[in-house]
């Protein structure tokens, strides 16, 4: 990596799921000088590398921005924590590693939203380019890409009961749900390579790190984008040695994420004029959509005790954890090499929806998180999520101080259609748990409604437990309408040489865990930049 420079062709802000992709692909051209700037540290901790340790980076103050929402009006004023990665690899270094592309209808919907070139047939080549799927390469899957995708084993009895119960209820076995019809139960695919988390830092940044045309700066907080007139010419950052200006000869690219990128735009004078002036920021470009249209998957946990000593918790006692750690350290095998989310499902809340709009994720134990520690007990839990929410939130400023986190309002369940769909999805889930496949292992419900509960009772319970799937998108979304912030290649409207490439530009949250779609977006835009 080149060092002690302050001028580059491209300056990328944020070394996360998108930023690492861009750094790799742009530096494939040896004539380009690229600087990648990350607010957090390197990602070489064992709690990041070991898949089973996924709860620890999420609870960390070092690797997680640990954002919190403002009190959510429909959730009894609860503030909801939002995990976003703050290290090399970003959220791909702290997420659950579940690999889901989403439905082809999601991306065809982006095209119908006015974004030519973003339908599924145009996105598929980049999904294939990004992955090495252990099932092999074909017309739908990639076999030589940077991201390793493996099938979970799902051989524990509770995983098998989940799959059988879903099929008894009437769901199909979706098989390779990333290769066609996603609806039905499935064995989960995960971003794990040889027993180690396969983040974008491992997959993209590490191979590029020794290139002489790439400079990586960690522990640097970018405070604003610098402009000369309407042209973005670099960034101002702060580090222990003080402030520094980094200049970009071609482009500044923000990959700071769905929360970080709109925050940085507003700190730089790009956003709603009145909002900026209220915080003492001189408006540079009036873009009312900056921070608007925030979307996220809302989730509710359905928890049950398990009988017959079957819960995986028995393997996670003190002795079991020592055994798990040693086996992983020595061989990268065993429970240390799993993310525990080994089965899942996609299904419709009702026949009225165009295609599946609900997701199940599943754990073969009960887990409570208190004071950064994980308390595990016997049981199993379904996580019920709504895939295409109607409610919209916003990111806004609290102050003009770049160190202060922005205000986040998800507005979960403020659109009554979301409550209707979630209640229907929860009721269907209760019916699945009632199938004979669970008869041997199903114990008492734990803070979970009875199947006989009314819709009003389920809705009331939902407001007490609803939380985030940590899948925020769309706060700087692509488009040409009044709330659009970027065009179909991520260029920020109204200024020159400033681009955004991350989850914030996604126009509609896909029916998927969002890491794979974000990597695809970065691959696709990187290819267009490289062709210039």
Automatic annotation (TrEMBL):
Q: Which domain of life is it from?
A: Bacteria
Q: Which cofactor does it need?
A: FAD
Output this protein's name.
Answer: Oxygen-dependent choline dehydrogenase
Q: Keywords for this entry?
A: FAD, Flavoprotein
PANTHER family to which the protein is assigned, alphabetical: CHOLINE DEHYDROGENASE, MITOCHONDRIAL, GLUCOSE-METHANOL-CHOLINE GMC OXIDOREDUCTASE
Q: Which PROSITE patterns match?
A: GMC_OXRED_1, GMC_OXRED_2, PROKAR_LIPOPROTEIN
Family membership: Belongs to the GMC oxidoreductase family.
Q: Does the keyword Flavoprotein apply?
A: yes
* Span of domain Glucose-methanol-choline oxidoreductase N-terminal: 85-108, 257-271
């Amino acid at each position: 990596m080149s060092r002690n420079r302050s001028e580059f062709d491209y300056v990328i802000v944020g070394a996360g799921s998108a930023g690492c992709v861009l750094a790799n692909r742009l530096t494939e051209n040896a004539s380009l000088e690229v600087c990648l700037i990350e607010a957090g540290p390197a990602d070489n901790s064992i709690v990041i590398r070991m898949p089973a340790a996924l709860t620890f980076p999420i609870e960390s103050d070092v690797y997680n921005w640990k954002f919190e929402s403002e009190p959510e009006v429909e959730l009894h004023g609860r503030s909801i924590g939002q995990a976003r990665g703050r290290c090399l690899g970003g959220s791909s270094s702290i997420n659950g590693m579940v690999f889901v592309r989403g439905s082809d209808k999601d991306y065809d919907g982006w095209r119908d939203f006015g974004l030519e070139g973003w339908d599924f047939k145009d996105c598929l080549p980049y999904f294939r380019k990004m992955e090495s799927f252990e099932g092999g390469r074909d017309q739908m899957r990639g076999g030589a890409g940077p991201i390793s995708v493996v099938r979970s084993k799902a051989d524990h009895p509770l995983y098998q009961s989940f799959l059988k119960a879903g099929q008894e209820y009437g769901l199909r076995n979706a098989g390779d749900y990333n290769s066609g019809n996603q609806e039905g139960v499935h064995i989960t695919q995960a971003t794990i390579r040889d027993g180690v988390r396969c983040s974008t830092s491992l997959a993209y940044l590490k191979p590029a790190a020794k290139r002489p045309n790439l400079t990586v700066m960690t522990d640097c907080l970018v405070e604003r984008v610098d402009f000369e007139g309407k042209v973005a010419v670099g960034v101002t950052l702060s580090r222990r040695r003080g402030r520094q200006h980094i200049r970009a000869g071609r482009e500044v690219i923000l990959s700071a994420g769905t929360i970080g990128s709109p925050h940085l735009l507003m700190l730089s004078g790009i956003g709603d004029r009145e909002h900026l002036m209220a915080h003492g920021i001189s408006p540079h470009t009036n873009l009312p959509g900056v921070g608007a249209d925030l979307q996220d998957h809302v989730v509710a946990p359905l928890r049950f005790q398990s009988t017959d000593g079957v819960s995986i918790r028995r393997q996670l006692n003190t002795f079991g954890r020592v055994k798990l750690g040693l086996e992983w350290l020595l061989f990268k095998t065993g429970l240390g090499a799993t993310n525990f989310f080994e089965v899942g499902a996609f299904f419709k809340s009702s026949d009225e929806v165009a295609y599946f709009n609900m997701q199940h994720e599943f754990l073969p134990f009960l887990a409570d998180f208190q004071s950064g520690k994980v308390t595990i007990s016997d049981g199993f839990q379904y996580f019920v999520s709504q895939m295409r929410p109607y409610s919209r939130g916003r990111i806004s400023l609290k102050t003009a101080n770049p160190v202060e986190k922005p205000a986040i309002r998800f507005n979960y369940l403020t659109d009554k259609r979301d409550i209707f769909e979630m209640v229907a999805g929860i009721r269907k889930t209760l019916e699945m748990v009632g199938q004979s496949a669970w008869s041997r292992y199903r114990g008492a419900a734990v803070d979970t409604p009875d199947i006989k509960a009314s819709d009003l009772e389920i809705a009331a319970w939902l407001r007490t437990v609803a939380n985030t799937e940590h899948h925020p998108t769309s706060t700087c979304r692509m488009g040409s309408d009044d709330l659009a912030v970027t065009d179909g290649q991520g260029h920020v409207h109204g200024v020159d040489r400033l681009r955004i490439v991350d989850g914030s530009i996604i126009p509609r949250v896909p029916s998927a865990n969002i890491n794979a779609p974000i990597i695809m977006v970065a691959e696709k835009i990187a290819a267009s930049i490289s062709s210039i």
